[in-house]
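In practice, a research group might receive sequence data for several interacting partners and want a quick structural hypothesis before committing to experiments. The following worked case mirrors that situation: the sequences arrive first, and a predicted assembly follows.
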Amino acid sequence: MDAGNEWLIQNQQTVRSANERLSTLAVEVVPAGQFVPFICECADGACLGRVDMKVAEYEDVHRDRDQYSVLRAHQVVDGEKVVEQRPLFDIVSKAALSG
Ligand SMILES: [Zn+2]
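A structural hypothesis for the assembly, expressed as tokens:
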């Protein structure tokens, strides 16, 4: 894996952590079934795209740790694949990268 790719993945991990904190918080304060403004988990470090989804949906997508929710056509890392398209975002997987 080249250094550029690694840097992109680092960006994604930062956003992932922020989203996880948001999801933990939202469970407490947001009524179930209400949309929460998560951040796009694409590889573009400057992207602050909004991915609206329910906390349950976020947890469902991220139960597989290799899966990321990104806005359609946003930057992906080499080796990532779109595994599912939902109405508001795509789910990409790094499964091919981690083996
Ligand atoms: Zn994005």
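Before designing any experiment, note the following. The longest strand covers residues 81-85. The chain has one domain: 3-98.
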